[in-house]
Specification:
The chain has eight helices and 13 strands. By secondary structure, the chain is of the alpha+beta class.
Length: about 375
C-alpha cells in the first residue's frame, strides 16, 4: 500500500538585507525571496502558478463576475496611516465595492528595484496581508520582478481583484437622474495632504493621517439601508471633483455641489491655502460618493455619526483615521440637474460663486501635487 505524502514548501533562508538582481534570476535566491517574504505571509493554497478559485456566490443564478486591476506608485512608500501595500489592497477592494461587487480575491505583482531593502518589503507585504484580512479578501497569486538600480523607484505594486455582483444589483453612473442627491462619507483630502506633508520637502507639520481603508462592508451596509442607490465612485486620484465629473459625463447631467457642506478638516484647509491647492482635487483613499433618488435621502444610513470638522480631536487615538468610524460624515454634497448638461466638458458647479469644477488637467494640478498620492 502506497502512502501519499503531502508536499510542503521548504523553509526559506533569506539572508540578504537588500534585493539583488539574483533575486529575480529564477534560481535559489529568487525562491528564497518569494517563499520567505511573500508566500509565508500571504499563505496561498498550494504552490501552483495560478490560483484555483471556488465560491458558492459564483453559482448563484444571475450573479456577475467583477474584475478590476490597478497599479500603484507612491512617494514616500510609507507614510502616516498606510503604505503602498495598504493602498494597493484597499484601492482594488474599493474599486470592486463601488461597482456593487463583493470582493473575494486579489492578485499582487511587485516590481522591485535592485537595492530595495528586504525589511521594507516585509513591512509592505505584512501591511497588505493585514489590509486583506480587514477587507475579508485573500491574496491568492502574484509575481515578482527585479529591475536594475534606477529603473524603478524602489517598489511598484500592481493588484487585480475579483468579486461577485449579486443578482439584480446594478450600480452605474448612467443611472443618475436630475433631482438625485449625492452623499460623501468620511472627510476629504486627508490622504493627499498626508502625502504632501510626508515628503518633507515643504516644511509642513501636521498630524493628519491617510484615510486609506477598505470599504466593502460599508458599501454592503449602505445598499442594504438604501437599495435605491444608483451609483458610487471612490474619490481617489483627482479627488471628489474627478469623481463627480465622471458621474456627470456618464449620465449627461450637470452636478451642483454646495461647498459649505463638504467635510474638510481645518488642517487640510490650511495645507491647501498654504500651497494654493483646491481640496476638491486632493486624492483620497477612504471617501467615496454615492447617488440616491431624492426619496432615499432621509433613510438612516449605517454608522452615520457626525464627525467634528473643527480640527479638534478628543484623544490621541483619533489622530489616526483608522480609529474613525468608516462612515464619519454624511453630507449632502451634490444635486444632478440638466442645466449644465450637453457641454463639451460637463462640470460640477459650486453654489453661491457658481465656479466651474471641471476634471483636473496638467495646468491645474501638477504631477507633484496631484498625482503624488496615487497614480
Amino acid at each position: 500500500m502506497n502512502e501519499q505524502v503531502a508536499l510542503t514548501p521548504r523553509v526559506a533562508r533569506l539572508r540578504a538585507d537588500r534585493v539583488t538582481l539574483a533575486h529575480g534570476g529564477g534560481g535559489k535566491a529568487m525562491r528564497d525571496l518569494i517563499e520567505d517574504v511573500f508566500v509565508s505571509t500571504f499563505q496561498p493554497d498550494g504552490m501552483e502558478d495560478q490560483a484555483r478559485l471556488q465560491s458558492a456566490l459564483l453559482a448563484e443564478p444571475g450573479a456577475q463576475l467583477a474584475f478590476t486591476t490597478d497599479s500603484f506608485v507612491v512617494q514616500p512608500i510609507e507614510f502616516p496611516g498606510g503604505d503602498i501595500g495598504r493602498i494597493a489592497v484597499c484601492g482594488t477592494v474599493n474599486d470592486l465595492a463601488v461597482g456593487g461587487a463583493r470582493p473575494l480575491w486579489l492578485s499582487a505583482a511587485f516590481i522591485i528595484e535592485e537595492g530595495c531593502e528586504v525589511a521594507l518589503l516585509r513591512r509592505v507585504v505584512a501591511s497588505m496581508r493585514a489590509a486583506a484580512d480587514e477587507a475579508g479578501v485573500r491574496i491568492v497569486t502574484g509575481d515578482t520582478k527585479v529591475v536594475e538600480r534606477g529603473a524603478a523607484d524602489r517598489l511598484f505594486v500592481t493588484t487585480a481583484g475579483v468579486g461577485v455582483i449579486p443578482p439584480g444589483r446594478m450600480l452605474s453612473a448612467e443611472r443618475v437622474q436630475p433631482g438625485d442627491v449625492a452623499i460623501v462619507n468620511g472627510v476629504l483630502g486627508d490622504h493627499g495632504a498626508t502625502i504632501l506633508a510626508a515628503r518633507g520637502d515643504m516644511a509642513l507639520e501636521t498630524d493628519i493621517a491617510s484615510d486609506c481603508r477598505p470599504l466593502g462592508d460599508l458599501m454592503e451596509a449602505v445598499i442594504a439601508a438604501a437599495p435605491g442607490v444608483r451609483c458610487a465612485r471612490d474619490a481617489t486620484r483627482g479627488g471628489l471633483a474627478s469623481a463627480l465629473n465622471e458621474i456627470a459625463q456618464a449620465s449627461a447631467v450637470g452636478i451642483e455641489i454646495e461647498e459649505a457642506t463638504l467635510p474638510l478638516r481645518a488642517e487640510v484647509k490650511g495645507v491647501c491655502e498654504l500651497l494654493g491647492l483646491d481640496p476638491l482635487y486632493l486624492a483620497n483613499e477612504g471617501p467615496w460618493c454615492c447617488s440616491f433618488p431624492k426619496a432615499k435621502r432621509g433613510r438612516r444610513l449605517p454608522r452615520c455619526a457626525p464627525h467634528r470638522l473643527d480640527g479638534r480631536r478628543r484623544s490621541s487615538a483619533a489622530r489616526s483615521n483608522r480609529a474613525m468610524p468608516a462612515w464619519s460624515c454624511a453630507a449632502i454634497s451634490g444635486q444632478p440637474n440638466r442645466r449644465h448638461a450637453g457641454r463639451r466638458t460637463t462640470s460640477a458647479h459650486l453654489l453661491k460663486e457658481k465656479r466651474p469644477c471641471s476634471s483636473p488637467d496638467r495646468a491645474r494640478i501638477s504631477r507633484r501635487n496631484g498625482a503624488c498620492a496615487r497614480t
